[in-house]
């Protein structure tokens, strides 16, 4: 009997702080998953592109770093950022160039309340089944274009411009992805978020393209919100939302709010996708390096496992992806949780519990 083993080549960038702890945990769980199910395995290559190394050697990624990443099937990212490096330096040295160079123009952020976890919202506004959202974030342009500049620096007349760039091509492709996502979900409902009352160019183009693309998806129920009112609706009427599409900045903020409403920022995953599959996509929990708890072994690894599950699905191992999420939820349902979720376990305790659960499931 011959058995074929699919090898998925994964580039790992643990980065800083708890990024290192949770990437270790994710690799451990992924190895348990492939060893238990069989038929596929992961070949991990780790890159030490971190703020610590930046402070020692002056760079995050080597000059051919982006070219190196292109050889992989997917990228797993921990977190980047450290107190003594300005955040805009770490972001623009690593994560933003990767997203741009690898055409990862979609950022997908699912949010729901996992079994055994609780929303800070009271049950009268949010029963556990009421919050089940898919946030689609534009990941390549908008407010994070990096364009702009500063003049008359260090004088009372300093002027800084931060230019948002919105293109029809960029908006159309994110809208199509959002409509396809909405169509694939049971409620077939898409809410589009802008600030087109106060921002009269880019945001108005967003609205316009949204209604144009909507004509191709008549089976999807559509709905438009201003971002300020959207924050209120997320808190007071969570059940009224399903799939959400928003710009780079707006969706960044709304997805942190969504994560908090679902119980903890420590559980939320994100996928940076190149839907054309010409380049590897990148998977990372939405939380940061959390310097306040780094090195203590108490970080919640659930966001890392959920991100890993999305990666496993993207490389084509559906059954393994479902199994991993089932294992994670069985563990949280039993109350095996870190402190941010009101439990008393540490990173290792949750990781081992998820591994044992995987072995029991398959
Ligand atoms: P970044 O700028 O990289 O987004 P940040 O400082 O804004 O980082 P986080 O690093 O995500 O934000 O941390 C915000 C808060 O949430 C911190 O108090 C941190 O301890 C907590 N936190 C974040 N991730 C986790 C996790 N996985 N487990 C437990 N607590 C977490
Ligand atoms: Mg943050």
Automatic annotation (TrEMBL):
EC identifiers of the protein: 1.1.1.83
Keywords noted in UniProt: Magnesium, Manganese, Metal-binding, NAD, Oxidoreductase
Every Isopropylmalate dehydrogenase-like domain range: 9-354
UniProt xrefs under Pfam families: Iso_dh
Tagged with keyword DNA-binding: no
Reaction it catalyzes: (R)-malate + NAD(+) = pyruvate + CO2 + NADH
Enzyme class (EC, first level): oxidoreductase
MF annotations from Gene Ontology: D-malate dehydrogenase (decarboxylating) (NAD+) activity; magnesium ion binding; NAD binding
Cofactor: Mg(2+); Mn(2+)
Sections of the chain in a coiled coil: none
Family the UniProt entry places it in: Belongs to the isocitrate and isopropylmalate dehydrogenases family.
Protein name: D-malate dehydrogenase (decarboxylating)
Organism: Clathrospora elynae
């Amino acid at each position: 009997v011959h058995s074929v083993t699919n090898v998925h080549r994964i580039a790992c960038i643990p980065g800083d702080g708890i990024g290192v702890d949770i990437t270790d945990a994710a690799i451990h769980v992924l190895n348990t998953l492939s060893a238990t199910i069989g038929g596929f395995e992961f070949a991990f290559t780790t890159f030490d592109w971190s703020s610590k190394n930046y402070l020692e050697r002056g760079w995050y990624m080597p000059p051919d770093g982006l070219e190196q990443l292109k050889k992989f099937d997917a990228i797993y990212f921990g977190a980047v950022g450290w107190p003594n490096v300005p955040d805009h330096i770490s972001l623009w040295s690593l994560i933003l160039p990767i997203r741009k160079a690898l055409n990862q123009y979609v950022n997908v952020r699912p949010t729901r309340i996992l079994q055994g976890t609780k929303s800070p919202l009271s049950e009268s506004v949010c029963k556990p089944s009421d919050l089940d959202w898919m946030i689609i974030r534009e990941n390549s342009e908008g407010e994070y274009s990096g364009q702009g500049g500063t003049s008359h620096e260090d004088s009372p007349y300093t002027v800084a411009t931060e230019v948002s760039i919105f293109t029809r091509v960029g908006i159309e492709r994110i809208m199509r992805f959002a409509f396809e996502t909405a169509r694939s979900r049971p409620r077939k409902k898409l809410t589009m978020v802008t600030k087109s009352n106060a921002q009269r160019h880019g945001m108005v183009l967003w609205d316009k393209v949204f209604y144009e693309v909507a004509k191709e998806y008549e089976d999807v129920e559509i709905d438009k919100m201003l971002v300020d009112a959207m924050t209120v609706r997320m808190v007071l009427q969570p059940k009224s939302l399903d799939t959400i599409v928003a710009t780079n900045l707006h969706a960044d903020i709304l997805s942190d709010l969504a994560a908090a409403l679902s119980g903890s920022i420590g559980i939320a995953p994100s996928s940076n996708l190149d839907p054309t599959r010409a380049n590897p996509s990148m998977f990372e929990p939405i939380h940061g390096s959390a310097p306040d708890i780094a090195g203590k072994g108490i970080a919640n690894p659930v966001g890392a496992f959920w991100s890993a599950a999305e990666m496993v699905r993207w490389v084509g191992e559906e059954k393994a992806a479902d199994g991993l999420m089932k294992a994670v939820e069985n563990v949280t349902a039993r109350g095996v949780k870190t402190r941010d979720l009101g439990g008393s376990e540490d990173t290792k305790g949750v990781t081992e519990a998820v591994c044992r659960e995987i072995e029991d499931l398959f």
